[in-house]
Amino acid sequence: MRIHEYQAKRLLKGFGVPVPRGEVASTAAEARAIAEDLAGPVILKAQIHAGGRGKAGGILKASTPAEAAAMAARLLGQPLVTAQTGPEGRVVRRLLVEEALTAVRELYVGVVLSREDERVVLLSSARGGVDIETLALMEPDLVLRQAISPAAGFRPFQARKAAFGLGLSGPAFDQAVRLFPDLIRAFETTDASLIEINPLVLGAAGTLVAADAKMDFDDNGLPRHADVRALFDPDEELPEELEAAKAGLSFVRLDGDVGCMVNGAGLAMATMDLIALAGGRPANFLDVGGGVSEEAVSKAFAILTSDPGVRAALVNIFGGIVRCDLVAQGIVRAAREHGVGIPVVTRMEGTNVELGRKILAESGLPLTTEPDMETAAREAVRLAREHGGGR
Amino acid sequence: MSILAGASTRVVVQGLTGREGTFHAQSMIAYGTAVRAGVTPGKGGTRHLGLPVFDTVAGAVRSEGVDASVIFVPALAAADAIMEAAEAGIGLIVCITEGIPALDMVRVKAFLRETPARLIGPNTPGIISPGQTKLGIMPGPIHKPGPVGVVSRSGTLTYEAVNQLTLLGLGQSSALGIGGDPIVGLSFVDVLTMFEKDPGTDAVVLIGEIGGSAEEEAAALIRGGFGKPVVGYIAGLTAPPGRRMGHAGAIMSAAHGSASRKIELLEGAGVRIVRNPAAIGQAVASVLSGRT
Lengths: 391, 292
Fold this sequence. Notes:
The complex is a heterodimer. By secondary structure, chain A is an alpha+beta fold.
């Protein structure tokens, strides 16, 4: 789960991390009032779940409260298109209004869960303000990686090593060796999967401030953190993905025209790949999961066929625990309740497959049944083309 | 022959009395698995499905001599269940549970390094050695005994591959999922090494997916010399970066874990890569008959 910058800064501040003075505004009047309180030049930062805001004009500097209000009026309520949002952009609903910082140096500090190390890793680099993944690939020597022992925890020598590596001295050095353990504590306490302070700014006064903050959380940890769950912003999610999540389905919208509904994540990805192999483009990833109910299948099918860009649908089920008859009933129910305006190709194998096929055949619905998934994918792609696909 | 689990494996089910534990324990028993005990804290001394239930794994080990555990414990308690099993001296731990927080798994992996226990999963269908034993949730009847080892990060995609093999008359020595989570127990490298040593395995099917570097490490192992043919399929060529595709571990970044990179490395290591998941069985038939 992702959260906004202003939420990450509030959360990190609670763990002792220094952040700029500022507040979040959802109207131009609020932006003006915050700027007046800060009594000096301010930065307005669009709060959306996507990077690349600066280049896209989503981060602006205002020297007076009136200017802040005018800029806020222009940004709020409008979509912001960045390199990460896609062409439709994200609507800016809030702005973070902060004191403008003067940076002497821009540093990078990150905490990640490393799959390779199977540990939490502290990343630090004197080269802040750039994309760290690219930097780590191009010039790995510029990024210091320190894995944290699950038994011994983060050690003071590691903090010193990172602070020396950042080229800090004096009060900023002392501040940094306190900052790193605070970040790691924040990470571990909240089941985060990523914290990035990029840049960590060394100001003219010789102190460190987190000028930007990004936090992602491990979805599997959310059940034990009500406070983190409360930071979820439904406005940042696609409505159909939200609806799917509520029904316990795993759904990701893509931009093709052949929809698919599959049980199991691996088979769902394989089905998308098969659609592409047959010359089509998958419209989504949709895993109905292992312990699925007829109702969830019905919901999944409804979500799948509701996208106007979808020209044909492919249902690929390998029944194990999931019974094919139950899936068939779910499809029939959804088709009766919501109607099906597109051709549907089904392929079922495994538990109760004969019963499942019989239910579909006797439903009187316009469904094609294919014996294997390759033929089914080809047929779905052909039907999508026939029905005006190719968006 | 088989790896990790065979006819003599004596099994305890942690979470036996729960809904999932009950359902799958029945299915394992029906398959012929030597399920000997269950563990549910607080229900020790009772019986369930005709099996003795213990409060602790240590109790089940002491009284029933179990040497493997299958875990159906809820996500937030599962890491603890794995560590309890390892501490009790269980040699093979199969954790079916999906949704364990990754930081819990960091601690589990550190704990397991101090014990000889081997962990399959979490978020796995488990392991089956057809005709001998099944420690997991896969449908038994699609499998048959034979010379093909199957290892995967997925569930139903593994069933798909196994079904193709069985329909072609190619049985399996063992088939297992290493788990769909970012941090899991046994890796592809661990399992490939076991299949290489197993005299009952003539070829291996490796089914990977986007995210992480388990396939890259497998490619490095195979490149260094692997005595048996490997057929590979990697799911997720059409998956977008930065989005989680169902499995917690199936997420790639712009720089790491893409399917195309994994395919390139495995192919470079001599793995027979199939791009069509419906053609996995045929590819195995062809490498086994010497036609490549």
